[in-house]
Structures are given as structure tokens and as C-alpha cells.
Amino acid sequence: MLQMKLCGDLILREKCSPVSDITPAILNTMDEMVKMMHEQNGVGLAAPQVGITQRFLVMMDPETNVVYRMINPEIVFKSDETCVMEEGCLSVLGPDGLPVYSNVRRPESVDVKWTDENGKEMSARMSGVPARIVQHETDHLDGVLFIDYLSGVKREMLMRKVNRGHK
Ligand SMILES: [Zn+2]
Questions:
Q1: What is the mean pLDDT of residues 134-149?
Q2: Integer distance in angstroms from the first to the last C-alpha of the chain?
Q3: Hey, what domains does the chain have and what are their CATH numbers?
């Protein structure tokens, strides 16, 4: 059983190491992460969120319901054009145990390269919602959370809610 790591857990701040070998354990973990993501109505989950500091993640494009399992994902291009979208995270919960949301500005589209669950090299240009999700999830692999993009006051207000939730 995987356990969700919550904001405040230092494992979420670690830089994850590349996967050198796609083991059955990693594939099983990704399957469990997909299950967990669906159960919690999320659209993405990165390995450190379940306590594993390796570079892999799962995500779903909510428009097509396509699920991606990405190993060693890398964003190789970010558009100059940016947009604001509301983000939440399964590791950043409020007092009701549900994610807290905040607007974040990020590049509108990105090019992503990754290795899929069969060891195949993949790449895609993503824009809009999937671009947003893949940026949020790859950030997790570098120990970055969406709250890091918020201005001081906004972040403080959000963290007050989050911290109360964890007591
Ligand atoms: Zn997250």
C-alpha cells in the first residue's frame, strides 16, 4: 500500500534521481499510483508523493482520459506565452482533507520527452490542461511544489489553511 506524503514532509523537497532500470517494482508502483490518482480524483501523481525519490510520474489528460506513465520525463521546450490556471495537489490538503487550490501562471505549452512503461522513447507537444499537469508533476521530481510560485501573502494565506489541516 502506498502512502501519500503531505506538504511539510521533507521528501517532497528532494531532487529525485533518474531511473536507470525499469523494474517490475517500478511498473507495479506506477499501476498503484494510477489507481490512487483515480480514487482521489486527481489528474497526476509523482513518485516522491508516495515516498519514492526517483524520476517517474503518472498523469491523465482529463479531456481525453488518456493515462500517461512517464519515466525520466524532461521538459525540453517551454512557450514564451503563459497562462493562469487553478492548481491543486494531492499532497497539499486543507482542513477538510481535500486539496486547496490557487491560481498559478506557467508557460501555456511545452514539449516533453519521456520513456514509457515499455521502455520506448516518447515525445509530445502539450498545451492547455495537459501542459499544466505535466509541468506540475515534473516539478515534483525536483522538489518544487505549486505553492512555491505564489506571492508571499497569497502563499501565507494558503499555508495557514494547509497547516491547520495537518494538526
Ligand atoms: Zn502535486
A1: 97
A2: 23
A3: 10-165 (3.90.45.10)
